[in-house]
Design goal:
heterohexamer, A: alpha/beta, five-stranded parallel beta sheet, 36% helix, C: alpha/beta, 4 helices
Chain lengths: 117, 88, 118, 117, 88, 118
C-alpha cells in the first residue's frame, strides 16, 4: 500500500478540479492506500473559508471536505499562502493551518505527490 | 520507467511550456476535465492517450479507438506505475 | 441604448468564466442594453449539446444558456474557425447561434461601446 | 470630463495588477474625470477581505484601497461572485456589496469601462 | 475610430484568442506589466507599440525606437481617444 | 534524500507563482532534500538583472532569488531555448544558473521522485 500527498492549487470557484481531487482521494482510500495530507496551496487556500453561500444545485464542496475529514485525512492549508490572500486563518473549518516545512516533510516521506490544478 | 503527464485544459493553455520537447516517446499522457475535449491536439505527444472516462462522459465526448478510458481507480494505479507525475 | 459585447475564450469548466459571462450577458439584457455574446477558442465547447455536469455535482449551466432566447438575448455569435478547430458543426450546438468569420468579428467589435472579456 | 467604470478581475495575490488599477484610478481623478465605480468581479472579490496579514515589504493593498475610498469613489463588489467564492460578505471593509444589475446600469451610463486583469 | 488592445502578459498567455485575426491594422496595442518583456512578440499586431513606461522601467526594459513610452496620464487619455477597449 | 524538481513557467509577476516556487525550493533545501529548480518559458525573465519592483510597492523577490546560493540551493537550471526566445544571455542573469537543452531537461525530469509545477 502506498502513501500519497495531494496538493490543490485552484480556488473553490473551479468546481471541476474540486470534485476531481475529492474523487481521487476517495479512490485512494478505497484501494487501501494512505493519504498523508491534502494540502491547500496558492489559490487553493480559499477552500478553507467558512463563508460560502451556495445554491442547492451548486457543487457542495464544504460538505465534500467534511466527509473526507471524517475519514481521518489530514486536511492542511499553507498559512503563508493564506495570510497573503486574506483568508481568515483563525477560522478554517476542517482544515488545519500548517507551514510549508511540515508539508515538505510529508512529501519527502510519501510515495507519490499528486498536484490538482 | 515512464513519466505521466497530466492535463486538464485544451492545449492552448500550455503553450509556453514547450511540451513537445519535454515529453518523451515512452511517456504517458492523461487527459482530465476540459482537456478531454481536445484529445486530437494531444495526439502529437503520445499515440495512446489515456482519458478520464467520467470527465469525458460528462462532456458528451465519445472516445476514439486509440484513446483509453480510465476510471478513478485506474488513475490512482497509473500514478503508482509511473516514475514521475507532472500536472501541467 | 448602448452596444455591449461579452467575449468568451475560456474552456467550459475553466473556473466560473463561462457562467460569469452568462450572468453579464443576462444582466445587460435585463437593463435594456443591446448585448452580444461572442464565443471563440475553447469557449465554443460551452455550446456543445448533451453535456451533463450535474452527474458530477456541478451546476448544469447549459440549461441556462438554452434560456437566453427567452430573455431576448438574440445576438449570440460563434467563431466559425473555432468550431472547425473543435470538430463541431452548427447542429452540435445547444442554441441557434450565428457563426462569424474573423472579419465579421472585427466588424462586430467596431460597433460596440463596451467590450468585456470574461 | 469623462465618466469611468473600472472592474478588477484578478485576486489580491496579483500585486502587479493591483497596483496598476490604483494608479490608473488616481490618474483619472487627477485629470478631473469621474470614476462612477470600481467593481470587484471574479477572483477580484477577494480584495474585499479584511484578513490580510502582510509583511511590511509587501504591497499594502488595503491601505491603497482605503486611500482611494477617502476620495469618494464608489468601491463595490459583486455579491454573487463573492458568495460563491467564500468571501465574508458581512464584513467587506471599504467595499460595498452590490448586485450585477447595479453595476450594469453604471456601465451603461459611463463613457469608458476599463477591465484590469 | 480605433480599438485599443491591452495586454499584461507575454503572448503565449493569449494563444487561444486568434488575436492576429481580431486586431485591425489601424488598432492600437498597449503593453502593461509582464507584456512589456515581450514587445517583439506583439510587433506582428502593430508597427507602433505603446508601452506603459513605469512597468517597463521596473522590469529593466529599454524601449526600442518604435515603442512609445506611455505615462498613466497618457494611458487614461488613450482610453478616451479609442472607440473600444479590449483588455485581453 | 529524495530528488524534487520545481518547474516554473509563469511570467515573473503572474500572481505569486514565482515566489511560491522560490518558497517551495527553499523549504525542500531546508528539510535536506535534493531540490532542483528549472525555469522555462517566460519564467526565465524572473532571473533577469536590475529589476526594481519595490519602486511600485511590490516586494523585491529578486533579492531572495540571489540568496539561493547561500542556502545551498545549487541546482538552478534555465531552458536554453527560452533564454533565446526572450533575448537573454547568461550574463543578463541574477545568478549563475546552468542552461539546459531540452534533452538535458528530459534527463533531469527522469531523475526525480517528485516534480511540481508552480
Amino acid at each position: 500500500m502506498a502513501r500519497f500527498v495531494l496538493s490543490l492549487h485552484t480556488p473553490p470557484s473551479d468546481h471541476d478540479t474540486s470534485q476531481r481531487i475529492i474523487k481521487f482521494a476517495n479512490a485512494c482510500l478505497s484501494q487501501g492506500h494512505t493519504i498523508d495530507a491534502i494540502f491547500l496551496y496558492q489559490q487553493g487556500v480559499y477552500h478553507a473559508s467558512t463563508h460560502f453561500d451556495l445554491a442547492s444545485d451548486e457543487l457542495q464542496i464544504g460538505a465534500l471536505w467534511q466527509k473526507l475529514s471524517s475519514q481521518n485525512i489530514n486536511l492542511m492549508l499553507c498559512v503563508t499562502a493564506a495570510e497573503k490572500r486574506g483568508l481568515d486563518t483563525s477560522n478554517t473549518g476542517v482544515f488545519s493551518v500548517a507551514g510549508l516545512a511540515e508539508f515538505a516533510m510529508l512529501v519527502s516521506d510519501a510515495d507519490k505527490w499528486v498536484q490538482f490544478k | 520507467m515512464s513519466t505521466l503527464h497530466i492535463f486538464s485544459k485544451p492545449l492552448n493553455y500550455y503553450s509556453a511550456n514547450q511540451l513537445e520537447n519535454l515529453i518523451s516517446l515512452d511517456d504517458r499522457v492523461l487527459l482530465l476535465g476540459d482537456a478531454c475535449f481536445a484529445s486530437k491536439q494531444f495526439k502529437q505527444f503520445s499515440d495512446a492517450l489515456l482519458v478520464l472516462e467520467e470527465d469525458a462522459h460528462v462532456r458528451a465526448i465519445k472516445l476514439s479507438h486509440n484513446e483509453t478510458p480510465i476510471s478513478y481507480d485506474e488513475f490512482v494505479a497509473l500514478t503508482l506505475t509511473s516514475t514521475q507525475l507532472i500536472t501541467w | 441604448m448602448i452596444n455591449v459585447l461579452v467575449m468568451s475564450q475560456s474552456s467550459p469548466f475553466d473556473d466560473l468564466n463561462l457562467r460569469d459571462a452568462l450572468d453579464m450577458t443576462l444582466i445587460f439584457a435585463a437593463v435594456d442594453q443591446n448585448i452580444s455574446w461572442l464565443f471563440s477558442g475553447p469557449a465554443v465547447l460551452a455550446l456543445k449539446k448533451h453535456q451533463t455536469p450535474s452527474t458530477v455535482g456541478i451546476k448544469d449551466f447549459f440549461k441556462n444558456i438554452k434560456t437566453l432566447e427567452i430573455y431576448d438575448v438574440e445576438n449570440i455569435y460563434v467563431c466559425e474557425k473555432s468550431l472547425l478547430d473543435y470538430g463541431l458543426s452548427k447542429t452540435d450546438l445547444l442554441i441557434d447561434a450565428h457563426t462569424m468569420t474573423f472579419s465579421e468579428q472585427q466588424t462586430l467589435i467596431k460597433k460596440q461601446h463596451h467590450v468585456v472579456t470574461l
